[in-house]
Amino acid sequence: MQNADRSDNSRIGCLDGLRGLASLWVLVGHGLLLSGWHIPLVASPDFGVDLFIMISGFLMVFHYVQRRSREPWEAPSTWIAFWIRRFFRIAPLYYAALAVAIAIGPWLGEARVDIASVVPASMTSMERYTDQSLQNILLHLSFVFGALPDYGFRTALPDWSIGLEMQYYLALPFLMLVIGRIGWLAGALAVAAAGILLYSLSPAFFASYEMPSVLVLKLHVFLAGMLCAAAIGRPHRTVLLFALLAGLLAALPIGGRTVPVALAARAMIAFGMFGLIHHAALGGVLARILSRLSALLGSRPFHLLGEASYGIYLSHLLVLLPAAGFAATTLGASTPAPVRFALAMAITIPIVVAITWLAYTTIEMPGRALGRRLLASPILRTVLRPAR
After folding, report:
1. Other CB atoms closer than 10 Å to residue 142's CB: what's the count?
2. 264-299, pLDDT tens digit by residue?
3. CA distances from 37 to 25, 29, 188, 238 (A)
4. Directed axis angle between helix 337-359 and helix 14-35, to 10°?
5. What Rg value do the Cα atoms of the chain yield, rounded?
6. Alpha-helical segments (H) within 104-144
7. Closest CA to 18 of 303, 247, 242
8. pLDDT in tens, 18-63
9. DSSP character for 8?
10. Whose CB has fewer CB within 10 Å in the chain, the N or C terminal residue?
11. Closest by alpha carbon to 274, among 250, 311, 240?
12. How many CB atoms lie within 10 A of CB 154?
């Protein structure tokens, strides 16, 4: 395997740092939005989510390819094992965060009103905080909510992307079957074309989603990350071709903001990820710089940040909203936005760090272990064996 920094055969080190930076991007971006301080690109947490999406596309393909010898893509048992692993990676911590968000939603809504009194442009629908209905809860527990325009953005969590992620997991085995049959370039183009066609059938319907929580609106971004994984081990020219295609796919004007600056930013995120993982394909000074940066992002501190990234992402708004509300009511509109931002972040960061550590040790890691035990159980192994 070439053109990729690895600490072992199952890990791309720099992705830990990228995951951690993505979580910080979302955290800081939301802090800036809620304080009314605009810093170009940084105050756009949606770009941090796009980076998360590309990393997810990369990792799912990377591990799917690695397991192919013992988990053939054509076998239904492979799909079941994949879905079980992903469910126990995502669901335990999400369910815990969802319970908290639903329970304290009205209080968080009050904080949102306090923030809007100082930063009116930051206000969103109060239904995100007040809907404690059984229907809303069941839709989120089943992860169906992201596919429904009225429910994709209906809790205090940034969980529209969690529902989106689950849709991607559901589709991935079938995407890999297509790609396995016709090859990566043709497969990526065919999948992207199918997404574009589906979107073009009813742009007004997809515009009704407050956030791009349905897979059609972000499939091209997942594909950019998938191509980055598919480029591992290929000749340098092929790597560059895959990188070009990934950048073009990431910049498709579908889902989220479609202004030229936003599209260019998504393309640059894709190119940056390719550069960090496939720097050997570039050569020269740029390759050396990216190699060192890639090694830094794979170092121990960034590894820890990457491990904490999911907890940071899920929990930060539960803390940031009341912190930003406190900053807004305490300091008022006459105080410069950077000061309100600094106070909100000074309150938020230590609490989020503590919550993330506690959740990681008591929920996230035990949840992963439970999924592994289930996959290793004799009953499930017996059920899956005939399909192999």
Report:
1. 10
2. 999 999 999 999 999 988 888 999 999 999 999 999
3. 15, 10, 39, 42
4. 140
5. 21
6. 105-116, 127-130, 134-141
7. 303
8. 999 999 999 999 999 999 999 999 999 999 999 999 999 999 999 9
9. B
10. N
11. 240
12. 24
- Spell out the residues 6+ positions from residue 257 whose beta carbon is closer than 8 angstroms to its own: 46
Residue with tokens 């304290």: 104
| Residue count (the chain) | 388
pLDDT in tens, 117-168: 999 988 888 999 999 999 999 999 999 999 999 999 999 999 999 999 999 9
Paired tokens of 306: 């990457």
* Nearest CA-CA partner of 220 in 53, 387, 105: 53
Task: Retrieve residue 4's tokens.
Answer: 């990729």
As a whole number of angstroms, the distance between CA 110 and CA 88 comes to 33
314 close to 95: Cβ distance less than 8 angstroms: no
Q: Give 255's pLDDT tier (boundaries 50, 70, 90).
A: confident
SS3 11: strand
Contact 93, 363 (CB under 8 A): yes
